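agent: user wants the structure for Glycosyltransferase from Thalassotalea litorea. delegating to structure tool.
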Amino acid sequence: MKLLFVHDHPFFHSSDNQYFSGGGLPASVWDRYLKVFDTIDVVGRQGGPLPEAKINYVLSSRKGVSFFPQKNISGLRSRYKNISNATHNLTDLIDNADAIIVRLPSELGLLAVKLCKTKQKPYAVEMVDCPWDGLWNYGSFVAKLYAPLLAWRNRQAVKTSPYTLYVTKEFLQTRYPSPKSVSVNCSNVEISEISEDVLAARLQKISSSKNKVVLGQIGSLKGRFKGVHSVLSVLRKVKSQLPNFEYRILSSGSTPYYEQMVKDYGLEDVVYFDGPLPSGKPVMDWLDSIDIYLHPSFKEGLPRALIEAMSRGCPAIASNVAGIPELLNEDMMINPGDENHLELLIKRLVASETLQQRLAQENHSKSKKYHHALLDKKRTDYLKSFASFSSKCKFNP
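agent: tool returned. relaying tokens verbatim.
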């Protein structure tokens, strides 16, 4: 069977026609689908040629996976210019697919759902994020006006979906219900190791004397949705009040905006942009090197990076958006953009070894629910059911 996967994720092509991702869709992610389907056609956005310095990109191409990037249809001007061509291309790809998976929110995904309904082709939705939060919590006045419409469009797409996968246990299900679908909650996190040795090493790290406290965060620097600007603003105010510290950011995307902010705030000696790392051990080793993990996002689904940090026993502070309350205790969460509360929690956590040890144990324990062996079986059973459904019937929305 041939699977068509549709999302707005940008892909960058190399001179030898290999496709790369900014980090969100590495080649390994396709393994979960190839356990059930023979081949995958991937639709995403055209990112353009791969820059010579590949440091911010990971290979997405692999055997059995073909890429069909489309021009951007987000935004009024881009949509007017490119919607006709995208519709034509998606129509052909949908006609040639045996099953279609649409990852939302995404404009290409919403277009694919519309075409699937017209053609009575069964589709499955992966609901991985809340479009309302990003536009409402951190957007222009026009973005706030658009937030209700975009949320409604996604609700309509999910409402009639015969199969729906949510990355949260409750949050996205409540905002974007699919009452008639076969649904499953399954995070897109894949943690292969959650050992007691990791926790023991973390507790030892907390109790040992150290020359500096290392704050860390993982997330794209494209836009301001990950709250990096909030952390920088707080650190500017508390730099003289904290013990010797560093703030390290593991990220993909362009950094000139943040580099200038670091310079303007006088934080050049304490802030480091580490660039992206391959998933797996390199990221886990990086997390082991930090003392406190920060995740003050303005929008999320269920953040993979936060769960990975928890699996390494990292004490964590995060915003209370989307599925994050399913992960952390209320006393370690802030409202998006609440810099005063973020400052208070950073100071409190840095000052208390006892609190760090308690959070390390709590977070490590909670992360066990996201071990890849548990999630893989749930996801594979769901995909097998969807594949069987797709092969047997037409969909009447």
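agent: one observation worth passing along. The CA atoms of residues 167 and 186 lie 5 Å apart.
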